[in-house]
Amino acid sequence: MHKKAAVFVGPKHPFQVREYPISAPAPGQVGLELLASGICGTDVHIQQGCLAMPSFPLVTGHEFVGTVAALGQGAEHDAAGEKLQVGDRAVACVALPCGKCLNCRRGETASCLSFGVTYVKDVNEEPHFCGGFAEYLFSPAGNLVKLPAGVDPLAAAACPCGGPTIIRACTYGGGLHSGELVIIQGNGALGLFALAYAKDQGCRVVLIGSAKDPQRLELSKALQPDCFLDYRQYSPEELQQRVSALAAGCQRGDGADVVIETSGDPGAFPLGLQLLRTRGRYFVPGQYSDRGSVSIPPHLITFRALQIIGSGQYTLQDVLEYLQFLARRQDLQPLFRQMLSSYPVSDIDQAMAAAAAGQAIKAVLVPRS
Hints:
Rossmann fold, alpha/beta, six-stranded parallel beta sheet, 369 residues, 12 helices
Protein backbone atom coordinates (compact mmCIF):
# COMPACT_ATOMS: atom_id res chain seq x y z
CA MET A 1 0.00 0.00 0.00
CA HIS A 2 1.24 3.48 -0.93
CA LYS A 3 0.18 6.88 0.43
CA LYS A 4 0.81 10.45 -0.67
CA ALA A 5 3.03 12.97 1.05
CA ALA A 6 3.58 16.66 0.30
CA VAL A 7 7.35 17.09 0.39
CA PHE A 8 8.98 20.40 1.34
CA VAL A 9 12.02 20.92 -0.89
CA GLY A 10 12.92 24.49 0.09
CA PRO A 11 11.36 27.88 0.83
CA LYS A 12 9.29 29.46 -1.93
CA HIS A 13 9.36 26.25 -3.97
CA PRO A 14 6.19 24.30 -4.77
CA PHE A 15 5.73 21.18 -2.70
CA GLN A 16 6.42 17.88 -4.43
CA VAL A 17 3.62 15.37 -4.02
CA ARG A 18 5.14 11.90 -3.86
CA GLU A 19 3.95 8.41 -2.98
CA TYR A 20 5.73 6.07 -0.58
CA PRO A 21 5.00 2.56 0.72
CA ILE A 22 3.56 2.07 4.20
CA SER A 23 5.73 -0.10 6.43
CA ALA A 24 5.02 -1.62 9.83
CA PRO A 25 5.62 0.78 12.72
CA ALA A 26 8.89 0.46 14.62
CA PRO A 27 8.87 -0.26 18.37
CA GLY A 28 7.27 2.60 20.26
CA GLN A 29 5.77 4.01 17.08
CA VAL A 30 2.14 4.27 15.94
CA GLY A 31 0.87 4.44 12.37
CA LEU A 32 -2.08 6.75 11.78
CA GLU A 33 -4.36 7.27 8.80
CA LEU A 34 -5.10 10.90 7.98
CA LEU A 35 -8.37 12.47 9.08
CA ALA A 36 -7.33 16.12 8.86
CA SER A 37 -3.99 17.94 9.03
CA GLY A 38 -4.02 21.68 9.49
CA ILE A 39 -1.82 24.37 8.00
CA CYS A 40 -0.56 26.63 10.79
CA GLY A 41 0.86 30.11 10.43
CA THR A 42 4.20 28.53 11.30
CA ASP A 43 3.93 26.32 8.20
CA VAL A 44 3.32 29.41 6.07
CA HIS A 45 6.39 31.06 7.62
CA ILE A 46 8.48 27.96 6.80
CA GLN A 47 7.29 27.99 3.22
CA GLN A 48 8.06 31.70 2.93
CA GLY A 49 11.57 31.21 4.30
CA CYS A 50 10.99 33.01 7.61
CA LEU A 51 11.84 29.90 9.65
CA ALA A 52 14.84 27.81 8.67
CA MET A 53 14.56 24.12 7.78
CA PRO A 54 17.26 21.54 6.96
CA SER A 55 18.43 21.31 3.36
CA PHE A 56 17.16 17.75 2.79
CA PRO A 57 13.58 17.07 1.58
CA LEU A 58 11.13 16.44 4.40
CA VAL A 59 7.44 16.36 5.25
CA THR A 60 6.51 19.36 7.37
CA GLY A 61 3.21 19.96 9.16
CA HIS A 62 2.42 19.58 12.85
CA GLU A 63 -1.38 19.55 13.20
CA PHE A 64 -2.17 15.94 12.31
CA VAL A 65 -5.40 14.33 13.52
CA GLY A 66 -5.66 10.70 12.53
CA THR A 67 -7.01 7.21 13.14
CA VAL A 68 -4.71 4.63 14.71
CA ALA A 69 -4.03 2.03 12.02
CA ALA A 70 -1.09 0.06 13.46
CA LEU A 71 0.77 -0.19 16.78
CA GLY A 72 4.45 -0.98 17.11
CA GLN A 73 5.83 -3.04 19.95
CA GLY A 74 5.54 -1.19 23.25
CA ALA A 75 3.22 1.49 21.82
CA GLU A 76 0.26 0.66 24.02
CA HIS A 77 -0.42 4.04 25.66
CA ASP A 78 -0.65 7.70 24.67
CA ALA A 79 0.95 10.67 26.44
CA ALA A 80 -1.77 10.73 29.11
CA GLY A 81 -1.44 7.00 29.83
CA GLU A 82 -4.64 6.14 27.95
CA LYS A 83 -4.62 2.73 26.26
CA LEU A 84 -4.27 2.93 22.48
CA GLN A 85 -6.08 0.58 20.12
CA VAL A 86 -6.51 0.34 16.37
CA GLY A 87 -9.43 2.60 15.43
CA ASP A 88 -8.77 5.21 18.11
CA ARG A 89 -8.50 8.81 16.99
CA ALA A 90 -5.65 10.97 18.21
CA VAL A 91 -3.83 14.27 17.84
CA ALA A 92 -0.10 13.96 17.12
CA CYS A 93 2.30 16.43 18.74
CA VAL A 94 5.65 16.87 16.99
CA ALA A 95 7.63 18.52 19.82
CA LEU A 96 10.57 16.63 21.32
CA PRO A 97 11.83 18.48 24.41
CA CYS A 98 15.30 17.34 25.35
CA GLY A 99 14.50 16.50 28.98
CA LYS A 100 18.01 17.58 30.05
CA CYS A 101 18.25 21.37 29.87
CA LEU A 102 17.57 23.69 32.82
CA ASN A 103 14.00 24.40 31.73
CA CYS A 104 13.14 20.74 31.17
CA ARG A 105 14.58 19.84 34.57
CA ARG A 106 12.31 22.50 36.07
CA GLY A 107 9.30 20.97 34.32
CA GLU A 108 9.15 23.83 31.79
CA THR A 109 9.23 21.55 28.73
CA ALA A 110 7.27 24.05 26.64
CA SER A 111 10.35 26.27 26.82
CA CYS A 112 12.99 23.60 26.21
CA LEU A 113 16.33 25.10 25.21
CA SER A 114 17.07 22.30 22.73
CA PHE A 115 13.73 21.51 21.12
CA GLY A 116 13.57 18.88 18.43
CA VAL A 117 10.63 17.93 16.23
CA THR A 118 9.61 14.51 15.02
CA TYR A 119 9.38 15.47 11.35
CA VAL A 120 12.98 16.61 10.78
CA LYS A 121 13.88 13.45 8.87
CA ASP A 122 14.83 12.91 5.24
CA VAL A 123 11.67 11.79 3.47
CA ASN A 124 13.68 9.40 1.31
CA GLU A 125 14.49 7.31 4.38
CA GLU A 126 12.00 4.92 5.93
CA PRO A 127 9.42 5.25 7.33
CA HIS A 128 8.98 8.33 5.05
CA PHE A 129 5.85 9.63 6.81
CA CYS A 130 7.12 11.67 9.76
CA GLY A 131 5.31 15.01 9.20
CA GLY A 132 1.71 16.10 9.05
CA PHE A 133 1.33 16.97 5.37
CA ALA A 134 0.65 13.42 4.27
CA GLU A 135 -2.03 10.75 4.13
CA TYR A 136 -0.25 8.75 6.81
CA LEU A 137 1.91 9.49 9.84
CA PHE A 138 4.29 7.57 12.07
CA SER A 139 4.42 9.08 15.55
CA PRO A 140 5.92 8.04 18.87
CA ALA A 141 3.07 6.78 21.07
CA GLY A 142 4.18 9.25 23.74
CA ASN A 143 3.51 12.14 21.35
CA LEU A 144 -0.14 11.20 20.84
CA VAL A 145 -3.18 12.39 22.76
CA LYS A 146 -6.27 10.27 22.19
CA LEU A 147 -9.50 12.13 21.50
CA PRO A 148 -11.97 11.88 24.39
CA ALA A 149 -15.40 10.42 23.74
CA GLY A 150 -17.71 12.90 22.09
CA VAL A 151 -15.02 14.98 20.37
CA ASP A 152 -15.51 15.32 16.62
CA PRO A 153 -12.06 14.89 15.03
CA LEU A 154 -12.83 17.61 12.47
CA ALA A 155 -13.72 20.03 15.27
CA ALA A 156 -10.45 19.07 16.98
CA ALA A 157 -8.60 19.75 13.70
CA ALA A 158 -9.52 23.44 13.86
CA CYS A 159 -7.02 24.36 16.61
CA PRO A 160 -4.82 21.39 17.64
CA CYS A 161 -1.84 23.76 17.79
CA GLY A 162 -3.56 27.13 18.30
CA GLY A 163 -5.73 25.91 21.17
CA PRO A 164 -2.86 24.49 23.25
CA THR A 165 -0.75 27.56 22.40
CA ILE A 166 -3.40 29.88 23.85
CA ILE A 167 -3.88 27.64 26.87
CA ARG A 168 -0.12 27.68 27.57
CA ALA A 169 0.04 31.48 27.22
CA CYS A 170 -2.83 31.86 29.67
CA THR A 171 -1.17 29.44 32.07
CA TYR A 172 2.07 31.43 31.97
CA GLY A 173 0.08 34.62 32.56
CA GLY A 174 -1.76 33.40 35.63
CA GLY A 175 -4.93 32.29 33.88
CA LEU A 176 -8.07 34.17 32.90
CA HIS A 177 -10.55 35.11 35.58
CA SER A 178 -14.30 35.63 35.53
CA GLY A 179 -15.25 39.26 35.04
CA GLU A 180 -11.95 40.30 33.48
CA LEU A 181 -11.96 42.42 30.33
CA VAL A 182 -10.01 40.61 27.61
CA ILE A 183 -9.03 42.06 24.23
CA ILE A 184 -8.13 39.66 21.42
CA GLN A 185 -6.16 41.00 18.46
CA GLY A 186 -6.93 38.95 15.36
CA ASN A 187 -9.78 36.66 14.30
CA GLY A 188 -7.95 33.81 12.64
CA ALA A 189 -8.13 30.32 14.12
CA LEU A 190 -5.85 31.32 17.03
CA GLY A 191 -7.96 34.37 17.85
CA LEU A 192 -11.26 32.53 17.52
CA PHE A 193 -10.13 29.85 19.93
CA ALA A 194 -8.93 32.55 22.34
CA LEU A 195 -12.39 34.14 22.09
CA ALA A 196 -14.18 30.87 22.86
CA TYR A 197 -11.77 30.06 25.68
CA ALA A 198 -12.01 33.50 27.33
CA LYS A 199 -15.80 33.51 27.13
CA ASP A 200 -15.84 30.07 28.74
CA GLN A 201 -13.80 31.50 31.64
CA GLY A 202 -16.48 34.14 32.23
CA CYS A 203 -14.56 37.06 30.75
CA ARG A 204 -15.92 40.06 28.86
CA VAL A 205 -14.26 39.85 25.46
CA VAL A 206 -13.57 42.45 22.79
CA LEU A 207 -12.47 40.97 19.46
CA ILE A 208 -10.46 43.26 17.18
CA GLY A 209 -10.32 41.66 13.77
CA SER A 210 -11.24 41.76 10.13
CA ALA A 211 -14.78 42.06 8.77
CA LYS A 212 -13.61 41.75 5.17
CA ASP A 213 -14.55 38.10 4.72
CA PRO A 214 -18.26 37.38 5.39
CA GLN A 215 -17.65 33.80 6.58
CA ARG A 216 -14.97 34.86 9.04
CA LEU A 217 -17.16 37.71 10.31
CA GLU A 218 -20.17 35.43 10.73
CA LEU A 219 -18.15 32.88 12.68
CA SER A 220 -16.53 35.60 14.79
CA LYS A 221 -19.95 36.86 15.83
CA ALA A 222 -21.34 33.33 16.35
CA LEU A 223 -18.74 32.85 19.09
CA GLN A 224 -20.39 35.82 20.83
CA PRO A 225 -17.78 38.44 21.68
CA ASP A 226 -19.18 41.21 23.85
CA CYS A 227 -17.90 43.64 21.23
CA PHE A 228 -16.45 43.21 17.73
CA LEU A 229 -14.30 45.99 16.26
CA ASP A 230 -13.08 45.97 12.67
CA TYR A 231 -9.49 47.20 12.85
CA ARG A 232 -9.83 48.82 9.43
CA GLN A 233 -12.58 51.15 10.62
CA TYR A 234 -10.75 52.67 13.59
CA SER A 235 -7.47 54.44 14.17
CA PRO A 236 -5.31 53.15 17.05
CA GLU A 237 -6.38 56.21 19.06
CA GLU A 238 -10.06 55.44 18.43
CA LEU A 239 -9.60 51.81 19.42
CA GLN A 240 -7.93 52.93 22.63
CA GLN A 241 -10.83 55.28 23.36
CA ARG A 242 -13.38 52.51 22.77
CA VAL A 243 -11.55 50.12 25.06
CA SER A 244 -11.11 52.77 27.76
CA ALA A 245 -14.83 53.48 27.70
CA LEU A 246 -15.67 49.78 27.92
CA ALA A 247 -13.23 49.33 30.81
CA ALA A 248 -14.74 52.26 32.69
CA GLY A 249 -18.24 50.93 32.06
CA CYS A 250 -17.45 47.54 33.62
CA GLN A 251 -15.23 48.99 36.35
CA ARG A 252 -11.98 47.45 35.10
CA GLY A 253 -9.81 50.53 35.58
CA ASP A 254 -8.08 52.31 32.70
CA GLY A 255 -7.99 49.51 30.15
CA ALA A 256 -8.17 45.78 29.57
CA ASP A 257 -7.04 43.27 32.16
CA VAL A 258 -5.59 41.08 29.41
CA VAL A 259 -4.73 41.55 25.74
CA ILE A 260 -4.00 38.45 23.66
CA GLU A 261 -2.08 39.05 20.41
CA THR A 262 -2.95 36.44 17.77
CA SER A 263 -2.70 38.36 14.50
CA GLY A 264 1.01 37.87 13.87
CA ASP A 265 1.24 41.46 12.64
CA PRO A 266 4.14 43.25 14.38
CA GLY A 267 2.17 46.49 14.18
CA ALA A 268 -0.39 45.02 16.59
CA PHE A 269 2.14 44.94 19.42
CA PRO A 270 2.41 48.67 20.24
CA LEU A 271 -1.38 48.97 20.11
CA GLY A 272 -1.80 46.01 22.44
CA LEU A 273 0.31 47.72 25.08
CA GLN A 274 -1.80 50.86 24.84
CA LEU A 275 -5.03 48.91 25.37
CA LEU A 276 -3.98 47.47 28.73
CA ARG A 277 -4.95 48.82 32.11
CA THR A 278 -2.32 49.64 34.68
CA ARG A 279 -0.98 46.26 35.89
CA GLY A 280 -2.48 44.62 32.80
CA ARG A 281 -1.13 41.45 31.19
CA TYR A 282 -0.16 41.10 27.52
CA PHE A 283 -0.07 37.53 26.18
CA VAL A 284 1.95 37.26 22.96
CA PRO A 285 1.65 33.80 21.35
CA GLY A 286 1.08 35.11 17.82
CA GLN A 287 4.44 36.65 16.82
CA TYR A 288 6.12 33.40 15.82
CA SER A 289 8.66 34.50 13.24
CA ASP A 290 10.79 37.57 12.60
CA ARG A 291 8.56 39.88 10.58
CA GLY A 292 10.36 43.06 11.48
CA SER A 293 10.75 45.40 14.41
CA VAL A 294 8.41 47.99 15.85
CA SER A 295 8.91 51.02 18.05
CA ILE A 296 7.48 50.88 21.57
CA PRO A 297 7.73 53.35 24.49
CA PRO A 298 9.51 51.45 27.31
CA HIS A 299 8.31 53.94 29.90
CA LEU A 300 4.74 52.76 29.26
CA ILE A 301 5.74 49.33 30.56
CA THR A 302 7.48 50.86 33.55
CA PHE A 303 4.96 53.40 34.76
CA ARG A 304 1.90 51.25 34.12
CA ALA A 305 3.63 48.14 35.53
CA LEU A 306 2.65 46.03 32.54
CA GLN A 307 3.38 42.32 32.28
CA ILE A 308 4.36 40.90 28.86
CA ILE A 309 4.19 37.13 28.55
CA GLY A 310 5.51 35.37 25.47
CA SER A 311 4.59 31.79 24.63
CA GLY A 312 5.64 29.97 21.48
CA GLN A 313 5.22 26.30 22.41
CA TYR A 314 2.95 24.08 24.47
CA THR A 315 2.95 20.79 26.33
CA LEU A 316 1.10 17.54 25.79
CA GLN A 317 -0.93 18.43 28.86
CA ASP A 318 -2.09 21.56 27.02
CA VAL A 319 -3.22 19.39 24.08
CA LEU A 320 -5.18 17.23 26.49
CA GLU A 321 -6.76 20.30 28.08
CA TYR A 322 -7.73 21.55 24.61
CA LEU A 323 -9.47 18.26 23.81
CA GLN A 324 -11.17 18.18 27.22
CA PHE A 325 -12.42 21.71 26.56
CA LEU A 326 -14.04 20.49 23.32
CA ALA A 327 -15.49 17.46 25.09
CA ARG A 328 -17.06 19.72 27.71
CA ARG A 329 -18.22 22.35 25.22
CA GLN A 330 -19.83 20.19 22.56
CA ASP A 331 -21.99 23.15 21.61
CA LEU A 332 -18.87 24.79 20.16
CA GLN A 333 -17.82 21.85 18.02
CA PRO A 334 -20.03 22.71 15.01
CA LEU A 335 -18.59 26.24 15.03
CA PHE A 336 -15.05 24.90 15.15
CA ARG A 337 -15.81 22.68 12.16
CA GLN A 338 -16.94 25.77 10.26
CA MET A 339 -13.38 27.11 10.42
CA LEU A 340 -12.17 24.36 8.08
CA SER A 341 -11.47 24.61 4.36
CA SER A 342 -10.53 21.14 3.14
CA TYR A 343 -8.03 20.13 0.45
CA PRO A 344 -6.58 16.76 -0.61
CA VAL A 345 -2.86 16.33 -0.01
CA SER A 346 -2.24 16.71 -3.75
CA ASP A 347 -3.59 20.28 -3.53
CA ILE A 348 -1.08 21.36 -0.87
CA ASP A 349 0.07 24.44 -2.81
CA GLN A 350 -3.49 25.75 -3.16
CA ALA A 351 -4.13 25.08 0.52
CA MET A 352 -0.94 26.87 1.52
CA ALA A 353 -1.79 29.86 -0.67
CA ALA A 354 -5.28 30.09 0.84
CA ALA A 355 -3.81 30.00 4.35
CA ALA A 356 -1.18 32.63 3.52
CA ALA A 357 -3.74 34.97 1.96
CA GLY A 358 -6.21 34.60 4.82
CA GLN A 359 -8.80 33.15 2.45
CA ALA A 360 -9.14 30.11 4.72
CA ILE A 361 -9.60 30.46 8.46
CA LYS A 362 -8.07 26.98 8.82
CA ALA A 363 -6.92 25.14 5.72
CA VAL A 364 -6.67 21.40 6.34
CA LEU A 365 -5.49 18.46 4.29
CA VAL A 366 -7.90 15.53 4.18
CA PRO A 367 -7.96 12.05 2.61
CA ARG A 368 -8.80 11.65 -1.04
CA SER A 369 -12.54 11.34 -1.61
